[in-house]
Amino acid sequence: MAVITISRDYASGGRKLGRSLAKKLNYQYVDKSLFQKIAEDLDVSETNLESFEKSREYRISNVFYKLFSRDYVKRIVGYDKRMVEEKEYQDSLKHLILETAKEDNVVIIGRAAYFFLKDTPNCFHIRLSAPKDSRKRYAVENLNIPEHQAESVLERRDINSLWFRRLICGEGYDSVYYFHLILNMGFIQPEKAIDIIIALIR
Q: For the segment 74-84, what is each residue's pLDDT rounded down to a tens digit?
C-alpha cells in the first residue's frame, strides 16, 4: 500500500515505465486524467492548460488578460474561456494531487507530485534521468519524433520542464533530497528499474 510519484526527464521512458509498474502492482495510473481534472476544476480548455504548462511565454498572455476586459480579449485573440492564473493552477494542482494520494495504491507521473507529497507518509518519490543520446534515441523510436528534430525538441522540453518545476516548487525545486531513488535509464532496462522500485516500496 503506497503512493509512487515518478518525476522524469523528457524521453527517459517515465510514462511507459509508470504504466507497467502500475499494472504489475495493480495500482491506479494517473497522468492525463489528472490533467483533465485540473482543466475541469479551473474551467478552462485543456488546450489553454497545456499551453500554460509547456510555455514560459504563456505568462505574457496572462498579463495581457489582466489589462483588458474578458470580452475584449475574446474578440482579439479568440479565446472562449478564461486564461490560467498561476496561483489558481498551483492551488488546484496541489489539491488534486493530495486527493489522489488519499486513494492510495497509485502511481502519479509528473506534475511536481513529489513536491506536494514530500511530507506525506508512505509516499515514494522516484526520479528518472538519462543521457541525452539515450533520450534522443528513445524519442525517435518511441515518440515518433524525426531524428533531425530530436535534439531541438529535447532542449525545448527541458527548458519548459525546468520553468514549470521552478514555478510550482520555488527555490530548490529539483533538489535530489526530495527523492527516495534516482535511476539512470541510460544504464538500466525498464524491467530492472521496475523490480528495483518494487523492492524499495516493500
A: 554 454 445 56
Determine the topology of domain 3-39+97-196 in CATH: Rossmann fold (3.40.50)
Q: Where are the domains of the chain?
A: 3-39+97-196
Q: Label the pairing between strands 28-30 and 106-109.
A: parallel
* pTM across the whole model: 0.81
CA 62 – CA 173 distance, rounded (Å): 23
Burial pattern 62-72, b for ≥16 Cβ within 10 A else e, equals: eeebeeeeeee
For residues 9 and 44, the answer to whether their CB atoms sit within 8 Å is no
C-alpha 6/C-alpha 33 separation (Å) is: 15
Interacting residues of 60 by C-beta distance below 8 A, sequence separation 6+:
none
The C-alpha torsion from 196 through 197 and 201 to 202, rounded to 10°, is -40
